[in-house]
Design goal:
With 186 residues, the protein is an all-alpha fold. It has one domain (31-183). The chain has 8 helices and no strands. The chain has helices spanning 2-11, 17-27, 33-41, 45-61, 65-89, 105-121, 129-152, 158-183.
Amino acid sequence: MLLLVITWQVLADGPLLGPDERLGLKLAGSGPTRLAELFADLGNMQVAVPVLACAVLVTWLRRARRAAVYAVAAMAAVPALVVPLKLWTDRQGPLTEATGYYPSGHTTTAMVAYGAAALLLARYPKRSWVRSWVTLVAAVLLTAATSVGLLLRGYHWPLDVVAGWCVGGLVLLALRAGVTGAQRPK
């Protein structure tokens, strides 16, 4: 629902865009530049996808192949969902004349890659609730760090990042349903 409201605001140049842009410009350029850049880079495909690939490999080798395939499909869904939204909304970025910034693909990539890795790895060992929480917290922290870095570097408006969370959340919900279904005994 939140994704629909935000998208409507972006398309209609609604009242949420004013506060969004003021906050975005206030955040852009603040904070430690190198650390913000490092955080923003956590959402790059070259960083996030290898993390997921390692989790997929572990899952595949432990013979949970359906869950591994679902995780790969979830990551493949990211550009399939994000690119059409970027083209449709054609939103300009904070510090550029270029468009296509809504929703944040880096945020969505980080959320799906790290979240899917957490979903896959939380299963091993089977009785360890500690590992489940550690992987979940790591995924949340990596996604949050990516989001903060994107805002501090001025790469995205805050609503772009929130929309990335929404898209990533939808993909992870679908993945969780698939992985849970794949675990059920037949």
